[in-house]
Amino acid sequence: MISRLLPGKRPAERTPLPAHIEQIRLEALKGDPLAQTQWGQALLSSTFMQSDPMAAVGWFKIAASAGFGPASNMLGRCYHFGHGVEKDLAQAAVHYEKAASLGDEWGRYNLGILALRGLGMPVDRPRAFALFKEAAHNGHAKSMNLYARFLEEGWEVPQDRQAALAWYRRSAEQGDYRGQHNYATALAEADLVEEALSWWRKAVQDKDVTPDILQAMKRSLTALDKNGDDALLADVDRKLDVFLKK
Prior knowledge:
0% strand
């Protein structure tokens, strides 16, 4: 029945999907909220099929209506970035709020970003801090990095640079490229250059690394001069060139 209600049902003439993706699709049709969310994500952006954001939104709505937090978070992202729906930051906040209330750490993080930047809601730095802190303590790597930033700067909490360094390290170890860059920066400032370089090498390889972090890395690596890593700096420059050509 669900398949009759949604756009984007896979027509028979399409190229067959890989077995694991087809299994997700079948489980989604059976009503499993996790599979529905995963199928929505595949429809949003997958190398195995043409993107269908409107269909993805439909699946996220069905899974969210079952009280599945990650689906509410994905709905928030759709409204946040205008995937399959008109961009609406206020609506994004509503869905992130729901996801957070259901215990989804990505929902907490994304809601914290909106509160920190005043997107779709008034700026609310104390609330952003509380959201990042809770998600960080629950193991969310990107929230660890932002919680560390609050501790480093003394925003909404007494300044504690030792605790900030520990949280940057945890974020880095959990694989967040921003945490890796920030931890590397702190290590370099402490003259632990080789260890810093090892974290920058990890950060630059992340497929999601953004131009702002690449620019920050370039400044830091250039400042190291002869103590730096020319090959790493060249890799950073190559990735920046890719963004410039887009």
